[in-house]
Amino acid sequence: MALLDIKDLHATVEDDTKAILKGISLTIKPGEVHAVMGPNGAGKSTLSNVIAGRPGYTVTGGSITYDGQDLLAMEADERARAGVFLAFQYPVEIPGVATATFLKTALNARRKANGEPEIEALDFMKMMKANAKRLGVPDDMLKRPVNVGFSGGEKKRAEVLQMAMLEPRLCVLDETDSGLDIDALKVVADGVNALRTPERGMLVITHYQRLLNYIVPDVVHVLAGGRIVKSGDRTLAEELEAKGYGAFTEATAA
Amino acid sequence: MTQTRMTDPTRAETTTEMSPLAPDPGALAADEPGWLADLRRAGLSVYRARGLPTVKVEAWKYTNLAGLKKIPFVLDDGSLPAAAGRGALALALADAHEITLVNGRPVAVPDSLPAGVRVVSLAHLLETEPAAVEPHLGRLADLSDAPMGSLNAALMADGVVIQVDAGVALDRPLHLVTVTAAPDQARHMHPRHLVILGEGADATLVESRVTAAGAAETLSNAVTEIRLEARARLRHLRFVNPGPDAVDLDLTEAVLAEQAHYEAFGLTLGGRLVRNESRVRLRGSGADARLHGAYGLRAGQHADTTLIVDHAVPDTTSDQLYKGVVDEGGKGVFQGKVIVRRDAQRSDGNQLHKALLLSRNAEVYTKPELEIYADDVKCSHGATAGEMDMDQLFYLMARGLAEADARALLVEAFLDDVVESVPEGPVRDAFLSAVRAWQAGRHAVTWEGSA
């Protein structure tokens, strides 16, 4: 069974009739990593936000089935507890909530939904420290409020740390490479690669091919003008890099 | 609000329309030293001239005391037994020197205090050693523009005097648990406190302001005068959590000598009408004042924070930071003023107030004022008032928190952010627990109410 099955998805920004997504279809099987590449304004962020259930978008047609469930019928928090994780392009600062406390609260919300007891404090600390160490997240950052005063690289590392802690089934990475220098990119990509398992699927949304040198996808989709104009294997990303988006967007316009 | 109100017709007749609560000049205590009698008379004359402040008075523009006229208050006479209780709503601080006051009168003082630390009843000191009080009482605070503070001078009966000798650092916090009680009928009271820290002294003063169970309306109109000598440091941490029928007015005036530090934090969660007014005079170079605080208000609650910092000499610093959460029907007021005198070069004064409004009929009024007469200064002020941040809410929900839990966490976080400026330790922990309890209560009321 497909982990994520998007069929003919149409969406608009709320209070606007202008279509952003105009019939997207893609299927991610467990263990697969799909990349969605596209120029600015193609609808990349709308796609990730609609999958995560962010308010402010209206789905006007099509469906999203996740693990056999109608994802669009679920609230954002239900989706998250069911194992959908969105790594934000712009992680949000939450003053007053320590990162460690936040991680524990989120983890326990997930466990509660699965009928599991709350995690023991000691087990949580061990798990958090191990993951933080692997991602090069210093202890001090875990004590600081969520994303407050974090650099661009630290914010993205913190997103991957959350992902590692929450162990989602489906990871949606929305331009996780934006604002990262090459060293930070490698750390983040290593963190993501460590989470690749035969059960887990990933949707990696990016503007640049660069990230895909480190997170090697099974399938690459080119998104332009709200449609997937071409799909292929990893070599499609290289072709895009060589020819530019123009070659693909002109093809759709024609 | 369901108590039977007993009225005393003779008392009602002496209450004028303009200045209720005021005694006749002849009714002031007669057997007191001349300076004290002068102080009372001066206070009474200011109060009589100005009357109960109305919203037409700039300093009281957003806080209306007119409702007090309708309540048949009688002056507390000190007749209530100590058994009025500690008040379950006070901060739970195991490791503190605790002083309990009922209606402004000390009823329990610590058995043993470190050498160089004195905590005594003001009434007792006025009786036995008035010369010890005379240089300070009424000399630190200029109340000529403060009608309620002046009324306090006229009617003050008791309070605490805290003295820490030069160079003495207090081992544990002093915890004033001030309980208001009015089991029979509405009472007004005028507690007066003095806090004197000698050169280099160091102390933490915690206050819990609470109300005994089953009280009718209470009006507490307190004045606290604080003197910090050179290099003294006072952390003044206050928990204002009186009952739903309590009116709690407080005016604190602190005078700082060179390199003295006044670090105040106020957490207001209770009361019907609360006004916390702090006036800090930075009189010595290097003096520093931090006035931080948080408040959470629900329906029927009004809390006013009025701060004045006076940079009187060069090289002084101040920081005002308040955050408030106002729920349905609550009303918050923040008036913050920074004065920089002509000679006070290189003053550094900051002010920030942030309010989170949880419903459409929550109100907040902010009045920042900068009065700067020097040219080489760094001053900033900012104020925000808004609804919950939808990006933050979505971020939490995208991590699996149910909407109600996410909202609760954001409300707590909004306040915790400033509560965390209290030094780490039991008092900060107690404040954080109080915020959590308040949020849990708000949550239950709001969500049950809307169901």
Q: What is the mean pLDDT of chain B?
A: 91
Number of domains of chain B: 2
Compressed to H and E, one letter per element, the order of chain A equals EEEHEEHEEHHHEHEHEHEEHH
- Please name the two chains that share the biggest interface, counting residues whose Cβ lies under 8 Å from a Cβ on the partner chain: A-B, 28 and 25 residues
Global mean pLDDT of chain A: 93
- Given helix and strand content, the structural type of chain B is alpha/beta
Distance between the termini of chain B: 25 Å
Question: Helicity level of chain A, as a percent range?
Answer: 25-40%
How would you explain this protein's 3D organization?
- The complex is a heterodimer of chains A (254) and B (451).
- With 254 residues, chain A is an alpha/beta fold.
- Chain A has a domain of 174 residues: P-loop containing nucleotide triphosphate hydrolases (Rossmann fold).
- Chain A is 39% helix and 28% strand.
- Chain A contains 10 helices and 12 strands.
- In chain A, the strands form 3 sheets. Chain A has a 6-stranded mixed β-sheet with strand order 6-9-10-3-11-12, with helices on both faces.
- In chain A, a hairpin with a 2-residue loop joins strand 4 and strand 5.
- Chain A is globular.
- The model of chain A has no long low-confidence stretch (mean pLDDT 93).
- In chain B, strands 1, 4, 5, 7, 8, 10, 12, 14, 16, 18 and 20 form an 11-stranded mixed β-sheet that branches. In chain B, strands 3-2-6-9-11-13-15-17-19-21 form a 10-stranded mixed β-sheet, covered by helices on one side.
- The relative contact order of chain B is 0.10.
- The N terminus and C terminus of chain B are likely disordered.
- The longest helix of chain B has 25 residues.
- Chain B folds into 2 domains: 276 residues, no CATH class; 63 residues, no CATH class.
- Chain B is α/β, with parallel strands linked by helices and 451 residues long.
- In chain B, a hairpin with a 2-residue loop joins strand 2 and strand 3.
- Chains A and B meet through helix 2, strand 7 and helix 3 of A and helix 6 and helix 7 of B.
